[in-house]
Design goal:
The structure holds two protein chains of two kinds. Helices cover about 65% and strands about 10% of the residues of chain A. By secondary structure, chain A is α/β, with parallel strands linked by helices. The longest helix of chain A is centred in the last third of the chain and has 28 residues. In chain A, helix 3 links the parallel strand 4 and strand 5. Chain A folds into two domains: about 210 residues, Rossmann fold (3-Layer(aba) Sandwich); about 375 residues, no CATH class. Chain B is mainly alpha-helical. Chain B has one domain. Helix content of chain B is about 55%, strand content about 0%. The termini of chain B are far apart. The relative contact order of chain B is 0.11. Classes of the chains: A alpha/beta, B mainly alpha. Chains A and B meet through helix 12, helix 16, helix 20 and helix 21 of A and helix 1 of B.
């Protein structure tokens, strides 16, 4: 069988990834924000006796080779020379999309133009005369709607039947290229030359669009109407905060928390009781009972309790992403991001940080300038990742049962504020290079595809289940061992254990913070290995202690022994100080490893670990001592 | 006897967990990232 190498290129949000998925059957993240596909992805299929390889190139608005995406696209197309380059265009926004097309034609790259999103174009009353467009550019044109099976079949037929050698740029294109070359040969300064070339390109595009595109009875545009409110200069930011607040209410009050409470009741009640009864009936040794009940169930169960919150939160964020709203967040936050020396584009990797710092740090590759990238990498871990969420949820439910959602929301906001302050400080001191500009296309609002939303929720949430069964399980056993053994063997007194010795050492740093207990010190240490371990450590250490008289009242409201133990160890203010510290301190080892990999420097990794610990220590101290001064 | 059996089960589970953690490290994968791919081929993050 003969083979055919196809490359898909085009602007972001043109449905390119959807076409790729439909063609190759591969599943890939289909998001609405720019830079989801940062590098090429290859899929394979057979059609009409030909083996076809399809490369999904990063979405880009131009090929000036300024950003990594642009460089990847132009390098690939010029060096690899695929048999067929498919330029996927959003038919409802042809003027913008043709800018990349004309740049590629200027580079002498023949293109198959795929006028995608025909359904969107029709809704907007836009009609493109494909014959005239093909004649104007001298290139073949095909129309598709990415999710339609028949469109994909048509596209495949076109792939195998189109002989690109037959096509030459039209007279109109050749005249445009001659004009651009004339400008380049002149004596214009670099900035003025670039401006003139851009003007020339848009003049060309205007003439093509006026020839080929007609707008019949423009229908009322729902997206514009919604944007008039949601992306309006005055209302956008308040509404964004309201939207986030609603997500937190759904997660921590209305849906997620009741599910988490039910799971907590089950794990702390029937499950623990039945396992204990079974182990006793089997006459299992006391130490093994302790390991299973206090270590494994206390540690892993303590983390599993929060899985419903994580799934509900990710569902809400994926749903908002699916509507097209999240793409507006870059636009909405651009003025704030610019004040700290970044651009709105930088908000996208940061938003990923609410899930996990690791992909967020890697996602910073999509940023154009080195300053933006380094700043993003160093401030992302301040945000509340999914692994910190159980810490916040545990303390908020324990110490602020009536305002848990508000307290967790406040911690998220604290993380964002600290990230902004750190970005500003880093931008003004360490990284002083000028930031970049960015071009963002806002996709239309859509009813989210529930299958995609649920798949994304599962993809993000399942990691926590896997972690609970692997690293948290292993950590729980280790913590149980360290908490029950010392150099003389097994000890009845946990405060004479290895863990107590380690925790006591760490706790000396927090004598002014109100949480200078060895248990809190031990949780801080294990939290550096994995943030979920803070909760599992609490579960193991406080889940086995004697319930003091002081904690008896708390037992009435708190479902578990862990919470009653915590009630004696923390005051309200020291609990807040601990939450603040946990929110801001050193990233987990995985995130630190990623920082090392992305910056290529041990120095930046060490800097990240040290400066975040120092900031967390100072802010937590200020919160605790400030609260005490105010009489809390 | 039950203690020994449970101990053996726990050891097997710990070995499996350790193997998973080591493989993640060796293959450059991260559970919480939400993808089965290794990071060098991941479309979420690039390279």
């Amino acid at each position: 069988m003969s083979s055919l190498a196809v490359a898909l290129t085009g602007n972001p949000n043109t449905g390119k990834s959807t076409i790729f998925n439909e063609l190759t059957g591969a599943r890939q993240k289909i998001g609405n924000w720019p830079g989801v596909t940062v590098d090429k992805k290859i899929g394979y299929l057979s059609h009409q006796g030909r083996n076809i390889s399809v490369v999904d190139l990063p979405g880009t608005y131009s090929v000036n080779a300024r950003s990594p995406e642009e460089k990847i696209v132009i390098d690939y197309l010029l060096n690899e020379k695929p048999d067929l380059v498919v330029d996927v265009l959003d038919s409802s926004n042809l003027e913008r999309n043709l800018y990349l097309t004309i740049q590629l034609l200027e580079q002498g790259i023949p293109l198959l133009l795929d006028l995608n999103m025909q359904d969107e174009a029709k809704r907007h009353g836009i009609r493109v005369d494909t014959e005239k467009l093909g004649a104007a550019l001298g290139m073949p044109v095909v129309e598709t709607t990415a999710r339609s099976r028949s469109s994909i079949k048509t596209l495949l037929d076109v792939f195998t039947s189109t002989m690109m050698e037959k096509y030459q740029p039209s007279e109109k294109v050749r005249a445009h290229i001659a004009r651009v070359e004339g400008l380049r040969a002149g004596n214009l300064a670099a900035d003025a030359l670039e401006e003139k070339i851009i003007e020339e390109r848009y003049a060309f595009i205007d003439s093509v669009v006026s020839e080929c595109v007609s707008v019949a009875g423009a229908s009322s545009d729902l997206t514009e109407k919604i944007d008039a409110v949601l992306a309006n200069g005055w209302t956008a930011l308040p509404l964004f905060l309201v939207m986030l607040y609603a997500v937190f209410q759904i997660t921590f009050e209305w849906i997620g928390q009741p599910m988490a409470d039910a799971l907590d009741d089950f794990i702390g009640g029937p499950l623990t009781e039945s396992v204990t009864a079974t182990l006793e009936s089997w006459e299992v040794a006391d130490w093994m009972q302790s390991l299973i009940v206090d270590g494994v169930i206390g540690g892993v169960g303590g983390v599993l309790t929060f899985v419903p919150l994580i799934f509900v939160l990710f569902f809400c964020l994926s749903f908002l992403d699916g509507t097209g709203y999240m793409a507006r967040v870059a636009f909405i936050t651009d003025p704030i991001m610019r004040r700290v020396g970044l651009t709105g584009k930088g908000i996208m990797p940061l938003m990923m940080g609410f899930g996990c710092a690791v992909p967020a740090i890697m996602g910073a590759r999509t940023l154009d300038s080195e300053k933006d990238r380094m700043t993003s990498i160093l401030v992302t871990p301040f945000l509340t990742c999914g692994a910190k969420l159980p810490i916040m949820a545990l303390f908020a439910a324990m110490f602020f049962p009536d305002n848990a959602a508000n307290v967790v929301f406040a911690m998220y906001i604290l993380g964002v504020i600290m990230a902004i302050i750190a970005a500003k400080l880093l931008g003004g001191t360490v990284f002083q290079e000028k930031g970049s500009t960015f071009l963002l296309e806002l996709p239309p609002y859509r009813i989210p595809d529930m299958k995609t939303v649920l798949l994304e929720t599962w993809d993000k949430g399942k990691g926590y289940l896997i972690k609970a069964g692997t690293i948290i399980f292993a950590m729980s056993v280790l913590i149980w061992f360290l908490g029950n053994f010392n150099f003389n063997g097994m000890t009845e007194e946990m405060n004479e254990s290895f863990l107590a010795a380690l925790g006591t050492g760490m706790s000396k740093l927090f004598i002014f913070h109100g949480f200078d207990t060895w248990e809190a010190g031990a949780a801080v240490i294990t939290g550096i290995l994995a943030k979920e371990s803070v909760v599992s450590t609490m579960g193991i250490l406080y889940g086995v202690g004697e319930i003091s008289a002081e904690a008896e009242d708390a037992v009435e409201t708190a479902a578990t022994l862990m919470q009653s133990g915590m009630a004696t160890a923390f005051t309200t203010m020291s609990a807040v100080a601990f939450m603040v510290f946990s929110q801001l301190y050193t990233p987990c080892v995985t995130a630190l490893g990623t920082i090392k990999k992305e910056t290529g420097s041990w120095k930046w990794m060490g800097f990240s670990a040290a400066y975040m610990f120092a900031i967390a220590w100072v802010v937590s101290l200020l919160v605790y001592q400030g609260g005490r001064l105010m009489g809390f | 006897m039950a203690t020994y059996i449970l101990g053996a089960v726990l050891v097997v589970a710990l070995i499996a967990a350790g193997r998973h953690i080591y493989r993640n490290f060796a293959d450059d994968k991260h559970d919480c990232c939400g993808t089965e791919m290794n990071c060098t081929k991941c479309p979420h993050c690039g390279k």
